[in-house]
Amino acid sequence: MKGVRLLDTAAVEDLKTFEAGSDPVLSVYLSVRPGDSRGMAARLKDLLNPLRDAGPDDREWSMSLRSEIDAVIAMADRLGAEAGKGIALFRCSARRLDVQLAVSDRVRDRAIVDVRPYVAPIEAMLDYYRHYVVVLLDGNSAEAYRLTTDTFEPIASFVEEDVRKANYGGFGGYEEHRVRGHAEEVRSRLHREVASDAAERVRHGADGLIVAGTHDHIASFLNDAGTTAKIIGSFVVDPHTATPAILRANAIGVAEQHRADEDQAGVERVLDVEASGGLAVVGTRAALNAVNQRAVDTLWLQTDEMMGGSECTDCGWLTVGGRGLCPACGESLTEVPDVFDAMAMSVRQHGGTVRTILAETPLSEHHVAASLRFPLRVSIS
Ligand SMILES: [Zn+2]
After folding, report:
1. How far apart are CA 308 and CA 337, in angstroms?
2. In what order do the strands lie in the sheet with 368-372?
3. Same domain, yes or no, for 85 and 106?
4. Three-class DSSP category at 339
């Protein structure tokens, strides 16, 4: 696995399925400030030099770890040039791992040595990170854009051959019918091509396709695309006068509405299931209990508050407030700044999903709810 990539679900999956061996994997997270290549080298040294002796007392391990560290420090001036807002590096030369991810958010600087890539911070980012494909239809051509929280940029152009200009003399009606049939066929081919390109991007983590154009173009696109692409909405514009700013503003409107609808529906579902005595819990204490039993399928969070808590240093047991010993295993508890963050991290670590709700929903009065994989045992807390 090598190269510079954008952060998307496919990139995170590839890192998570990296086959761990007994060689050191160096994971580095850095925020990148424009024009800061000199500062970058110094920051990398501060971050990495203390790790030179990390890990087992083994000559081969130490040698390869040190060479990874030197290689990353030597990259400092090149990293600045490829500035996103943050960067994540994963290196293990012995197992051919050399990946750089451009991250569109600021990250906290940190470096971790382990036998596998440390992906928790980028996984957390993916929960918030959304991107959509926006397609502007214009007859026999179309332009695809990528919409993220902070960018709107062209990513692909599609053109199908022009309709042949026909000579109507002589065969009149028949010729005209044939040309129209051909024109529709060309357009339909274009639409299917656009839809399958969007479907591929959705497979790599895009959250859906937004379609723009005249009313008629949109209608025939929806017809041709069928269920190929995950179409989340559309808006009508004149393709000849629409500027990128107009497209972006309209697309953001569609995306926000879609996300709000999705959040609303998801919250309603989990609250309904809980109310009918099904596999779901609502409220902080009940959710903590579910998290501690590793029973959470999806954790729904809606809160601006932070709630202090504690975590067991051994088994990861989480509790609100709390001091002393872990009720599960008897080891000591350590404070965590925010129990909601800690719950989210624990759920992700054990294969569950975390959804942070931004829209106004009934969850705001409960802060947290969870759908469960299996019924809970009686709480110990
Ligand atoms: Zn414990």
Report:
1. 5
2. 280-282, 368-372, 296-301, 353-356
3. yes
4. helix
Name residue, tokens 């009918």: 276
Question: 325 CA distance to ligand 1 centroid (A)?
Answer: 8
- The answer to whether residues 146 and 227 belong to one domain is yes
CA distance 220 to 242: 20
Distance between Cα 23 and ligand 1 center (Å): 30
* SS3 state at 40: helix
Torsion (CA) 261, 266, 268, 273 in degrees, nearest 10: 160
pLDDT digits (tens, 9 = 90+) for 160-212: 876 555 444 445 556 666 666 788 888 999 999 999 999 999 998 899 999 99
Is the pLDDT at 141 greater than 60? The verdict is yes
Which structural domain range is residue 287 located in? 267-372
Nearest Cα residue to 122 out of 5, 3, 29: 29
Ligand 1 centroid–CA 319 distance in Å is 11
134 and 123 together in one domain: no
pLDDT of 330 > 70? The answer is yes
Residues 150 and 92 reside in one and the same domain: no
Q: Distance, CA 301 to ligand 1 centroid (Å)?
A: 24
Domain count, the chain: 3
Q: 340 C-alpha to center of ligand 1: Å?
A: 18
- Can you give the CATH number for the domain in which 10 is found? 3.30.960.10
